[in-house]
Structures are given as C-alpha cells and as structure tokens.
C-alpha cells in the first residue's frame, strides 16, 4: 500500500479543490483519485472531505490532517533535495574502527591528507583490538586483519599482511638461532591471545605451541617485550618493518610464515547505496597501501 502516495493525492485534492484537477496534475483519472481518497479515509476511520456535486470541503478532522500532511510532504521534499544536492559530495561523519596498533601507525598519520581533500567529512576513529559489531555498534566501516573468506560483510582487500618470526640479535646470540621448526620448543615464544601459531612451511601447514613466561592481551606489550629481547615473536611487517630493515630485529626460520589469505581488509555492511564518504575512504586506503604496501618496501619476503 502506497501510504505516502495517498497523502500526496489528498494534498493535491485539497489544494486544487477538485478531484479532476488533482488527477490532471498527477496524471491519474478522477475515478482513481476518488478511490485513493476513499481508501485513505477507510484506513483512518474518519471522513476527511465533504463532497457535494459542486465543491469539496474539508471536515474538521480533514483540516487538521491536511496541515500535518503538508508538513510531512514538505519534509520529504526537503530531505530528497538535501540528498540530491549532496550526491557526489563526500560529507558527514565517518565512523571507523581499526586495530589499536595498526590504526595508530598506519591510519592516524594519513588522516590529514584525507581530511584536507574532503573538508566536509569528520572522521570518528575508534581504536580497539576487540572484534567490533560493525552494524550493531554503528560503524560505517572497520579495518580488520584476518582471513575473511567467509565474512558476512562486504570485505575489500587493502593490503597483504605478512607475518614473520623474529627476535633481537641479542636474544639469538644468547639462546641460539633455530634452524628447524621443532627447535622453537626450546625457545621463549611470546604472543597475545594465542596458545598456538599456525604457520605455512615447506612441509605444509604446521602448528607451534606457544610457551613462555609472559601472557598478555596486548599486541603492543608483545612488541615491546620482543624489542627488549624476551624471546621470539610472530609479528606483522607493518608492525616491525623498520626494525627488520635497521637490524634491530632479525627474521627466524624465514621459510615459515602465516598463510597469504590473512590480509588487511576494509569491511562494511553493503555494496548497495554505499555512501560517498565510505567509498572515498576505502579507495584512499586502498591506493595508500596497495599490493606492495610502503611498510614492506626493502624487505625480502
């Protein structure tokens, strides 16, 4: 049932004071106009118009209803005009969720260029390592580093995520450099929220049990412990790329790494009616990172 259409018909009849005139404006026959008015009155359970052979007149209920209908239709027209005027423009508040470390290192430093290019946008960036509910928590999009082959959301790959085993030269000098995957059992392994590492190696997938004196829910704590020489960690190159390039960290067992399906993604609820602000930000990050992101430049992967 076209409820807003019936309101529009009613408003035209009152304005023109004639069903025939209203029909000409709306390209409908007088019979259809009469049927729509009758349907509206039946739904409301009240007579809106007094009909005579010579004129139409609003009832008391009809007058009050008409005043409110005009206001509603005016608001709809204003809303449509606002959307139309903004079509193609990047505007509004963009609510984004990102992992804490990645957001701090690879989103926040690049916001200025995006905001300068889109002065009508406000970015609300929420950093958290929790797996947020994009729709339920009101986010326009989330950046996730995961294997999203089966995600129920739309997922656009922004960049690869290479994760490598590494340690400080000091740790390796004191404890030896493992040459086989089984030797990791004799080393201190540091991780957050993980009991096992699942790696791909020359013999296929392998699982490594994580053991060590440090347990934490913070990826940044693991990073600091790694740099302090506590043990061996499995880190993303976007996190430790500079340290690998400078020699502050060294790769361990380079033949083993996390599978290539784990990547940096932008996820959002739907491709349909994707707002310009979301499209603009996703495209910006995709171009910024790319198939060979800047943090991997100079690394042998």
From TrEMBL:
Q: Look up keyword Hydrolase and say if it applies.
A: no
Q: Which GO-annotated molecular functions does the record name?
A: DNA binding; DNA-binding transcription factor activity
The family database entries (CDD domains) matched by this protein are listed as: PBP2_CrgA_like (cd08422)
Does this UniProt record's set of keywords contain Cytoplasm?
no
Sorted alphabetically, which keywords does the UniProt record give?
A: DNA-binding, Transcription, Transcription regulation
Boundaries of every HTH lysR-type domain copy: 1-59
Identify the InterPro entries for this entry. Answer: LysR-type_TF_proteobact-type (IPR058163), LysR_HTH_N (IPR000847), LysR_subst-bd (IPR005119), WH-like_DNA-bd_sf (IPR036388), WH_DNA-bd_sf (IPR036390)
Membrane-spanning parts: none
The record's Gene3D superfamilies line, in alphabetical order, gives:
3.40.190.290, Winged helix-like DNA-binding domain superfamily/Winged helix DNA-binding domain
One Pfam entry name: LysR_substrate
Protein family membership: Belongs to the LysR transcriptional regulatory family.
| Protein name as catalogued | DNA-binding transcriptional regulator, LysR family
């Amino acid at each position: 049932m076209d409820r807003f259409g019936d309101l529009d018909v009613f408003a035209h009849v009152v304005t023109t004071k004639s069903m025939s005139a209203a029909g000409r404006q709306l390209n409908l026959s007088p019979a259809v106009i009469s049927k729509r008015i009758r349907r509206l009155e039946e739904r409301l359970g009240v007579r809106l118009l007094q009909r005579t052979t010579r004129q139409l007149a609003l009832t008391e209920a009809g007058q009050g209803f008409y005043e409110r209908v005009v206001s509603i239709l005016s608001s709809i027209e204003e809303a449509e005009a606002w959307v139309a005027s903004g079509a193609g423009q990047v505007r509004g508040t963009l609510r984004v969720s990102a992992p804490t470390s990645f957001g701090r290192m690879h989103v926040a430093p690049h916001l200025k260029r995006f905001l300068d290019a889109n002065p009508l946008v406000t970015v609300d960036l929420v950093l958290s390592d929790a797996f947020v509910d994009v729709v339920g928590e009101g986010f326009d999009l989330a950046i996730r580093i995961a294997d999203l082959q089966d995600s129920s959301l739309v997922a656009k790959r922004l960049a690869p995520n290479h994760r490598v085993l590494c340690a400080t030269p000091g740790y390796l000098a004191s404890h030896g450099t493992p040459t086989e995957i089984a030797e990791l059992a004799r080393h201190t392994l540091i991780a957050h929220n993980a009991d096992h590492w699942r790696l791909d190696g020359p013999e296929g997938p392998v699982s490594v049990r994580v053991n060590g004196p440090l347990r934490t829910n913070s990826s940044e704590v693991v990073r600091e412990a790694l740099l302090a020489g506590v043990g061996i960690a499995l880190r993303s190159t976007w996190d430790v790329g500079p340290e690998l390039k400078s020699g502050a960290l060294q790769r361990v067992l380079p033949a083993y790494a996390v599978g290539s399906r784990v990547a940096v993604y932008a996820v959002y609820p739907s491709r349909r009616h994707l707002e310009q602000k979301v499209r603009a930000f996703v495209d910006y990050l995709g171009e910024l990172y790319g198939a060979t992101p800047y943090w991997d430049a100079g690394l042998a992967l």
